[in-house]
């Protein structure tokens, strides 16, 4: 496989299932799995919400970019990302160059349902959840479109989503491997 595109990267809005799908995908593909939000919380020694409150979103986005660069320059892995990682063109470009990118999508009402109880833990969802989710989706419209594959997770089982991504990954792997031989 081409070393440059050796990562499988999941992007998408919060609540689309990136962490849940990523956990299962890593088992299925036997790929090391890293989640940017979990990695940042470990580095910060606090939750992302606490870091946002203390340092602000701009500082968080800088740290997110720094971590993304480090991870994508390392050995092949499955990477699940925070929903806002696509806000910076630099991040989109790095992911496009270094990995096979899969966008997980869900209908707004499905996202609201999934996030309902955990909304307080997410700094961008403070206030009325329904309004915030629609506003974030509008703000990020088109920013996930660079993905190699988009999978709608609305009403689907984790296993079904995982299988669709595994099939795509295996085909992408074979195409790259075939070109190298």
Automatic annotation (TrEMBL):
Residue numbers binding Mg(2+): 19
Protein location: Cytoplasm
GO molecular function: ATP binding; magnesium ion binding; shikimate kinase activity
InterPro entries: P-loop_NTPase (IPR027417), Shikimate/glucono_kinase (IPR031322), Shikimate_kinase/TSH1 (IPR000623)
Keywords assigned: Amino-acid biosynthesis, Aromatic amino acid biosynthesis, ATP-binding, Cytoplasm, Kinase, Magnesium, Metal-binding, Nucleotide-binding, Transferase
One GO BP annotation of this record: aromatic amino acid family biosynthetic process
Binding sites annotated in the UniProt record for substrate: 37, 61, 83, 140
CDD domains hit by this protein: SK
Function: Catalyzes the specific phosphorylation of the 3-hydroxyl group of shikimic acid using ATP as a cosubstrate.
Domain of life of the native organism: Bacteria
PANTHER family: SHIKIMATE KINASE, SHIKIMATE KINASE 1, CHLOROPLASTIC
Main location: cytoplasm
Name of protein: Shikimate kinase
Positions that bind ATP: 15-20, 122, 156
One Pfam family matching this protein: SKI
Reaction catalysis annotation: shikimate + ATP = 3-phosphoshikimate + ADP + H(+)
Cofactor dependency: Mg(2+)
Gene (name only): aroK
Gene Ontology, cellular component aspect: cytosol
Family to which this protein belongs: Belongs to the shikimate kinase family.
Enzyme Commission no: 2.7.1.71
Cofactor note: Binds 1 Mg(2+) ion per subunit.
Subunit structure: Monomer.
Listed pathway(s): Metabolic intermediate biosynthesis; chorismate biosynthesis; chorismate from D-erythrose 4-phosphate and phosphoenolpyruvate: step 5/7
